[in-house]
Amino acid sequence: MAAVAAAVPLRVCHQEIVKFDLEIKAAVQDIRDCPGPLSALTELNAAVKEKFRQLRGRIQELEQMAKEQDKESEKQALLREVENHKKQMLSNQAAWRKANLACKIAIDNSEKDQLLQGRDVLRQRKTTKESLAESASNITESLMGISRMMSQQVQQSEETVQTLANSSRTILEANEEFKSMSGTIQLGRKLITKYNRRELTDKLLIFLALALFLATVLYILKKRLFPFL
């Protein structure tokens, strides 16, 4: 037992107990502030367990040193110190359990929030997809309406072209008829002109014949009435 006490001096044992106690308190605070995930909490708990194991070992060593003291007063003082360290370790263990509970509750709430956010995102994506599908349907309807309108316009254009073709054909036929009538009118004009000329000639011949007839009558009357002339 004396060899153990020599290997681990009393002062060094006190210092290590204080160090492990402070490290455990800091680790417990880290656990309380841990945002997650559970794997990070598991790593912190593993480190705290190791610190408790080392602290427990040093307290046991201090207790063994106390029992080996020759003076009863020093023995009792060290045993009281050992009890204080044990109480402090139990307090740290209680704080450790509370920190774990608080951390797990916080992680669970965070995971629930993330799940709800994920649902909201999925709902938004679903809404977006439905909106896109509705927009695509509206666009399709609009394109179909435009296509029908264009088809009607094309049909109307074809009908207009057909009407223009018929009108052009009618105009050509009327032009041909006009040309034919123009030829007939020119022919009639020539005939009228020729008739007018012949009428003038006929009138002149009739006038000459009448003049000749009157001259003949006058000549006969002259011979009968005035033979001595």
Describe it for me?
InterPro entries: Sec20, Sec20_C. Keywords: Coiled coil, Endoplasmic reticulum, ER-Golgi transport, Membrane, Transmembrane, Transmembrane helix, Transport. It is a single-pass type IV membrane protein. Residues 45-88 form a coiled coil. The structure is a single chain. This protein has a domain at 1-118: t-snare proteins (Methane Monooxygenase Hydroxylase, Chain G, domain 1), CATH 1.20.58. The chain has helices at 2-7, 10-33, 38-67, 72-225. With 229 residues, it is an all-alpha fold. It contains 4 helices and no strands.
**From the coordinates shown, what is the CATH architecture of the domain at 1-118?**
Up-down Bundle
Structural class: mainly alpha
If you average the pLDDT, what whole number results?
82
Gross morphology is: rod-shaped
- N/C terminus separation: 216 Å
Please report the total strand number as a whole number.
Answer: 0
Radius of gyration: 69 Å
CATH topology grouping of the domain at 1-118: Methane Monooxygenase Hydroxylase, Chain G, domain 1
The level-1 CATH class of the domain at 1-118: Mainly Alpha
Could you state the CATH homologous superfamily of the domain at 1-118? t-snare proteins
How would you characterize the largest beta sheet? none
**Beta fraction:** under 5%
Oligomer: single chain
Question: What order do the helices and strands follow?
Answer: HHHH
Low-confidence runs? 1-7
User: Which bin fits the share of residues in helices?
Assistant: over 70%
